[in-house]
Amino acid sequence: MATPDLLIVGSGLFGLTIAERAANEHGLSVTIIDRRDHLGGNAYSERDPETGIEVHKYGAHLFHTSNQRVWEYVNRFTSFTGYQHKVYTTHRGVVYPMPINLGTINQFFQAAHTPDEARALIAEQAGELAGADPENLNDKGISLIGRPLYEAFIKHYTGKQWQTDPKDLPASIISRLPVRYTYDNRYFNDTYEGLPTDGYTAWLERMADHPRIEVRLSTDFFDTTQELNRDAVRGQIPVVYTGPVDRYFDYSEGTLGWRTIDLETEHLSTGDFQGTSVMNYADADVPYTRIIEPRHFHPERDYPTDRTVIQREYSRFAESGDEPYYPINSGKDRETLLKYRAKAENEPRTLFGGRLGTYQYLDMHMAIGSALSMADNKLADLLRG
Ligand code: FDA
């Protein structure tokens, strides 16, 4: 076996950042394995063969950050376009801007409220359940933004995301619902935002483009027929593991719950289906949560004017064999996670990272930021040990 100085399980942004730092900063030979047949994890995108449009294979990925270090780091591998994300939502056949802002409020109430008037109106409507401690997500939503806006824009959308009536969901799922009392409908508030100019895959491949980094695709860490499997390397060589933490320990403390999404792709004979990249559907009678039209992520590109591609997104609970996307984080999940964390602390020569390895939703900049700090601190300790 050609033993690397460091084995990384998973070629998502967490694993790629560790690999790049280990090769360049620590001078190590690194092998990255991934069970998929491409690198990049969930940020991977590919060219749609029919239209040439770049499609985000695992769902819409928008890069945004206020972390200066992360921004400077990612700019070493790609430049970014000036794309600014904006989302709209269809409710009862009318399109509104999201997140809820003064434009949404005035359109919904057919009014011309000033910011102060709108604030007073929402405060009055949110007072409906004043004094009562919200027992479920439904009551929490009403107490945050009032019943009319909650029922139009949040209730059914959230119900579809969770396949559960919000009255049966814990209030703790939401701590706040953003309402802006200006007409600003930029989705993200971060200092930096954009999309990789040459696409995600070019960016991700550049991170692994180093003579000391080897990438082995279609290689599962738990497949004992491949040489760098868990049982062979455990305690023998340093490993950074970014797969699911419960899988690493053979689900010995139980499984952690995830939601997943299904994307239904359709090609259409029009140059523009919806005029924007993401349209949410707020009503219960539309089974999908949103439609993504990827051509709008890159208005600067020369895409065909007579064809487009769309992805309808459906949300559901993940079953075994599904891609785990969003941690459910129920009380039981949190208890189970604590047990796995204790086991991970005692695992010789293995560090757990990334969204699957830590059972946390991480935006891309958070995954990169946390990998950079692991490379600064824990990785050096691991290599010494
Ligand atoms: P990631 O999941 O990317 O990588 C883990 C890798 O490990 C995978 O490639 C997997 O195949 C591999 N692996 C698992 N088990 C293995 C095994 N046994 N053997 C070998 N390999 C194994 N972020 C953002 O900033 N803006 C956005 O708009 C979005 N949008 C978004 C949409 C959707 C639907 C999701 C699910 C996520 C986002 N994200 C996002 C989050 C983004 O995808 C996330 O930050 C990165 O994927 C994190 O990278 P990781 O490396 O942690 O995980």
From TrEMBL:
Per the entry, which co-factors are needed?
FAD
Which residue stretches, if any, does this entry annotate as coiled coil? none
Q: What is its EC number?
A: 5.4.99.9
Specify the UDP-galactopyranose mutase C-terminal domain's residue ranges: 152-361
Alphabetically list the UniProt keywords: FAD, Flavoprotein, Isomerase
UniProt key word Oxidoreductase: no
Entry superkingdom: Bacteria
**What Gene Ontology molecular-function terms does this entry list?**
UDP-galactopyranose mutase activity
Q: Which PANTHER family does the record associate with it?
A: UDP-GALACTOPYRANOSE MUTASE
Q: Which family does it belong to?
A: Belongs to the UDP-galactopyranose/dTDP-fucopyranose mutase family.
- Name the NCBIfam families for this protein: UDP-GALP_mutase (TIGR00031)
What name goes with this protein?
Answer: UDP-galactopyranose mutase
Query: Which species does the entry assign this protein to?
Result: Brachybacterium epidermidis
List the taxonomic lineage.
Bacteria, Bacillati, Actinomycetota, Actinomycetes, Micrococcales
